[in-house]
Design goal:
Layout lengths: L2 H31 L13 H20 L11 H24 L8 H34 L5 E6 L3 H11 L7 E7 L23 H7 L4 E4 L9 H8 L5 E4 L3 H6 L3 E5 L2 E5 L7 H21 L1 H14 L5 E7 L5 E7 L23 H9 L7 H6 L3 E3 L6 H10 L12 E3 L1 H5 L6 H16 L3 H17 L4
Parallel strand pairs: 1-2, 1-3, 3-4, 9-10
Antiparallel strand pairs: 4-6, 5-6, 7-8
EC number: 2.7.8.31
Enzyme class: transferase
Family: Belongs to the bacterial sugar transferase family.
């Protein structure tokens, strides 16, 4: 099923619902609150009506987008749709009430209550009915098997066999198309091999398999004796852009930390990899793009000044670019002002230190003030980076780090940043030992991600720039 087309349907019907609701609510206010005679109401000549019509639908659309309402539309249930629509329409109605209605002239305070109830009711009904229709249609198509999700099983023992048998015997499709399994460790015979093909010998093959077979969902099905490997399995799956579910046991249910879902009476737990609430994640991305574009415009004179200084100080290009590893392990090209001599790494990748003679005199100043990083605003706009996030590294150094600190992979769950807690608290690392030492600050950031923390890090970064105190 075309996900983009489904999202477009939601967006168009949400816009239409907001426009209709505003038109009816505006008419209600004119007739029942302001007591205008019906024959004197001419919306076609009312500038206020058209101003609201051109702004309010996009207010609702922004509210739905920033709260993550258009995510995972193919897996939405009708109950989820009801709850999320009710909650967001209530929040949006309160906002509009305080902005548009509270300062209106009224004859009785009852008008406030009736206006709010009418606004909420109209918006909810005209929004929820199309959504319910689309969601119900999507669920029916999935149950009839008109579309499915490529699903991979992690595990190959009796518990996984039981899962396949139970799901295969269901009268209606769960939407899962099982394409194969990956065992935790090699053995002579796998019970699950009778039902599904083996796609890899161990978890080491998981990245290649997910890309090759376009896997949408992964179900972890481990026997009791394999539970000690669960943390390793989940850590591996964190780097994959797939939905992860797990067959629970009693301990899993009691300890929580997962969202319960159900595939037609088969209890499964959804392992959530979200580090921030959807609304914060979307606002973070929005602010990244807006601030980066503004910074690129405002800093044009600084860009020119630095470029002239670099060219006057040493031979070579103004900008320096090379490959770094980004979110989910995806390589990208990073851009910086050149702070070293040309061919500084002709003998292979090397980390710099405070006595490094490869750094130019201008480059030393740029590094202390972090101004060598400002071309990365372009990377932020492209979506490769964020304003705040762990420092992106080269694969050459990542391979060395993970040998001693496998938890480095947690950093690849988010976009790397121009600045980070590690950069602010520690600075540039001169060797792999220092990179591992700096890693603890980035792990702290990952576990406490929020817009508030991002703003604090940006303030400390600005302080570092003006004090030229960067390491």
């Amino acid at each position: 099923m075309n996900k983009k087309l489904l999202t477009l349907k939601y967006v168009l019907f949400d816009l239409l619902a907001a426009a209709i609701s505003w038109g009816l609510f505006y008419s209600y206010r004119k007739i029942y609150v302001e007591h205008f005679p019906i024959e004197k109401i001419h919306l076609g000549n009312d500038d206020t009506f058209f101003l609201g019509l051109s702004i309010i639908p996009f207010f609702w659309l922004a509210l739905y987008y920033f709260t993550g309402e258009y995510r995972n539309l193919l897996r939405k249930s009708r109950l989820q749709e009801l709850a999320s629509t009710f909650k967001l329409v209530l929040v949006g109605s309160v906002i509009l009430f305080f902005i548009l209605i509270l300062d209106d002239y009224i004859s009785s305070y009852k008008n406030y209550y009736s206006s709010f109830f009418t606004l909420f009711s109209l918006q909810f009904v005209f929004t929820y009915i199309p959504r319910l229709t689309i969601t119900s249609s999507t669920i029916r198509k999935m149950r009839r098997g008109e579309f499915s999700f490529n699903t991979l099983i992690i595990g190959a023992r009796e518990k996984a066999v039981g899962l396949i048998k139970e799901m295969s015997n269901k009268p209606k499709s769960s939407g899962n198309k099982f394409i194969g399994f990956v065992p935790l460790e090699p053995q002579e015979q796998y019970p699950l091999e009778e039902y599904l093909p083996k796609l890899g010998d161990s978890l080491e093959d998981i990245n290649t398999i997910v890309k090759e077979y376009k896997v949408d969902e992964v179900i972890i099905s481990l026997d009791y004796q394999e539970k000690n490997k669960l943390e390793k399995v989940i850590s591996r799956l964190e780097l994959l852009h797939t939905r992860t579910l797990m067959q629970p046991d009693l301990y899993d249910i009691l300890t929580g930390h997962v969202q319960t879902t159900s595939l037609y009476s088969i209890p499964l737990l959804e392992v959530t990899h979200e580090l921030m609430p959807p609304w914060q994640e979307n606002v973070k991305r929005f602010l990244d793009v807006v601030f980066s574009i503004i910074a690129m415009i405002i800093l044009i004179p600084l860009y020119l000044g630095i470029s002239i200084a670099i060219k006057a100080n040493s031979k070579g290009p103004v900008f320096y670019s090379h490959t770094r590893i980004g979110r989910f392990g995806k390589p990208f090209t990073i851009y910086k002002f050149r702070s070293m001599v040309v061919d500084a790494e002709k003998n292979g990748p090397q980390l710099s230190n405070h006595t490094d003679n490869r750094i130019t005199s201008v480059g030393r100043f740029l590094r202390k003030t972090r101004l060598d990083e400002i071309p990365q605003f372009y990377n932020v706009v492209l979506g490769n980076m964020s304003l705040v996030g762990p420092r992106p590294e080269r694969q050459f150094f990542i391979d060395q780090i993970v040998e001693r600190a496998p938890h480095y992979y947690h950093l690849l769950r988010v976009r790397p940043g121009i600045t980070s807690l590690g950069q602010v608290k520690y600075g540039y690392a001169e060797n792999v030992d220092q990179m591992i030492e700096r890693l603890r600050y980035d792990i702290i950031y990952i576990e406490n991600m929020s817009l508030y923390v991002d703003f604090k890090i940006m303030i400390y970064t600005i302080k570092t720039i003006f004090e030229a105190s960067g390491k």
